[in-house]
Amino acid sequence: MSPVFPMLTVLSMFYYMCLRRRARTATRGEMNSRRAIESNTRALPINVEIVQYAKEVLDFSSHYGSENSMSYTMWNLAGIPNVYPSSGDFTQTAVFRTYGTWWDRCPSARLPFKRTPSTFCSQDYVELAFEEPVYPTAVHILETYHPGAVVRILACSANPYSQNPPAEVRWEILWSEAPTKVNGPQARQFTPCIKQINFPTNLIRLEVNSSLLDYYTELDAVVLHGVKERPVLSLKTSMIDMNDIDEDEEEEKFGCGMDTLNKQFSIVTLREWPTNGYFDKLPYELIQLILSHLTVPDLCRLAQTCKLLYQHCCDPLQYIHLSLQPYWARINDTSLEYLQSRCTLIQWLNLSWTGNRGAISVSGFSRFLKVCGSELVRLELSCGHFLNETCLEVITEMCPNLQELNLSSCDKIPPQAFNHIAKVGSLKRLILYRTKVEQTALLSILNFCSELQHLSLGSCVMIEDYDLIASMMGAKCKKLRSLDLWRCKNITESGIAELASGCQLLEELDLGWCPTLQSSTGCFTNLARKLPNLQKLFLTANRSVCDTDIEELAANCTHLRQLDILGTRMVSPASLRKLLESCKDLSLLDVSFCSQIDNRVVLELNANFPNVFIKKSFTQ
């Protein structure tokens, strides 16, 4: 045979693959505008483009602002821009709770879950509803301060204003990219190239990762461009981009991986091979170690190859630590049902962001925990809006060994349900940020959960008397190492005194935006003297913090690593120099809006203490 024929065969196969891929992509209506075909395509028929701002903020994971205010809250994303094109720190924008890596470098930091796919890096999200469902042609995000946090944009098939919810809710990624460092904090309009989808949407979700930012990102508005009729793209193309094939494989890997989880785990008929090759020569433990590096969808696929690997992929030892958060859009009752037999030994489980809009039912969640809850030590349920009192009751009954429970932003749980948590006396970490926990339930929890080491009560607005709560902590929670009282509205020097006297192991304390604390009462100097192990102290927006407080910290809290005194008018450069000289481990110092600390002082301190990140925010 002539050597030309094999080459022709290869070229034919390649051409067939490319055409097949083009046809498949076109039928889905998912041609990506970034790709090489865009210069020779046109939309048929021509539609009038609709431009609309977000009508409503439906859901979000965190925000800097208060639950009873509009300043720095996600609700500012609804409507027309308030700030753009201006740059700077403005209260009329939407701001998430964290930035940088500082929250990962403090005593309350949690260990990450293994097997998290490298493509999933989202830390926070916000979901926006628009008036008219459209086929998106563009999404404009108006960022007014420290841009670059948005890493993923998704569209949902469900219409939040429809009276008839769909049987199946589908999410599609319009755009996704790893976090990037943007030079400068100035405002910008971010308009990534989005792919086309085959359904109209008026529900857009932004996911962010702020780990590379020097300060809080601020978003002003989101603009959705789209057409009412589905665009049909012609296939007049003169060239094929080699990168398309790889990209398509990645899209299918994300899009189908968890969709087929249910089917793949239920497969019982597998082809039998006479031998398993080199796998027959490997110890069982070594194969388990190799497979431990695979993600959950990859385990699903591998389980279909042969009985040996099916056995390994279904071994409960592969599911000791399981995070389903990266696949939040595709997890449902059926997924949990098929995972049950494989999770009988599970110790860490992350269901954060999952189950919303009816994907996980109370009965489905309860059935799973009744089978898999006995060994659970850590349970992450952040933003689980399907949770109710029955779910908390099942958790406390079926998870007797539970030590860590995260209910952050589970704002649909009724207040009385939190009483059940008091039954879990082994708890060491409890996160109740943005929940409706009330005083009676919290007092019961503190009374019976004396092993608590980490407690987050940030933005818990239904607690009436934080002094009483602080007194109970001081009396019962002697092992407390970190405490978040962010935006606590009524704690006074009395509560701080009880807390400091009883919880002397505290290493982290967040008293940001607590307006009832006044330096003149001696509460901050008392903290400094009673809590020598402090590594992180946030006194954000407390205008009364003064030189005496800073000097007491310098004298007594030499292990201090992070200090936020944003907004104080009473701190001088001299006291900051004493602090920096005394606290050799200090790495973060936020002096934004401190009237006595101007840019010249910051430059001088940066020059003399280069290992400290000194933040000075501004407004134009």
Automatic annotation (TrEMBL):
Pfam families associated with the record: DUF7885, F-box-like
Keyword field: Leucine-rich repeat, Ubl conjugation pathway
Domain of life: Eukaryota
Cellular component terms (Gene Ontology): SCF ubiquitin ligase complex
Classification via CDD domains: F-box_FBXL4
InterPro entries (alphabetical): F-box-like_dom_sf, F-box_dom, FBXL15_LRR, Leu-rich_rpt_Cys-con_subtyp, LRR_dom_sf
Keyword Oxidoreductase tagged: no
Domain F-box: 276-331
Keyword Oxidoreductase: no
GO BP term, pick one: SCF-dependent proteasomal ubiquitin-dependent protein catabolic process
Protein name, as recorded: FBXL4 protein
Source species of the chain: Machaerirhynchus nigripectus
